[in-house]
């Protein structure tokens, strides 16, 4: 079967792209400042239907005026998952946090989970990542695509930076980012206040991370 990228559709204010067909159905949530382009490589070899979406304030989804929090992100993830009947979920970085917050409402919502480079679990980041992202946020607020591209390139491993076409891709991403308000958190938040929900997963559910 040949899998093609379907045209993007709208679900409320969310931009959604669907790959493939049939079961199982897996929903993918990207990281901070990302979009469906970030989760598409993760979805390439996953069987069944892959549902990719832009989180609120990201990509081609509706902009946010008051910033995001994990409840808002979990709302979006569950909205998409319910609309398409997803039984599996993949969260990348910030998307992993959204998935964790969704599990506090119903730990048995999904039959299989994957957390890719989760940004946080039950604590806030203390490793300098937040400050680095503020540099990107300042570039976005200033509309400085050059500074944004420089930051994005600096975050890539050295072997990747020299690959053909990488600078062009980074530049395109920077131009996209500065074209709209930076997706900033509404307040200091964390996905889980404790890890109790993780112990309530449906027996047989396999979280990967």
Q: Can you give the helix content as a percent range? A: 25-40%
Strand order in the sheet with the most strands: 1-2-4-3-5-6-7
Shape: globular
Mean pLDDT over all positions: 84
Q: Give the strand content.
A: 15-25%
Element-level helix/strand string: EEEHEHEHEHHHHE
Number of strands: 7
- Count of helical segments? 7
Low-confidence stretches: 1-5
Distance between the termini: 29 Å
**Content-based structural category:** alpha/beta
Query: What is Rg?
Result: 17 Å
**Biggest β-sheet, characterized?**
7 strands, mixed
Oligomer: single chain
Any overview of this molecule?
The structure is a single chain. The chain is α/β, with parallel strands linked by helices. 36% of the residues lie in helices and 15% in strands. The protein has helices at residues 36-43, 70-84, 94-105, 129-142, 145-154, 158-161, 166-178, and strands at 9-11, 14-19, 25-29, 49-53, 88-92, 112-116, 206-208. A 7-stranded mixed sheet has the order 1-2-4-3-5-6-7, with helices on both faces. Helix 2 packs across helix 3, helix 4 (129-142) packs antiparallel against helix 5 and helix 5 (145-154) crosses helix 7 (166-178). Mean pLDDT is 84; it is low at 1-5.
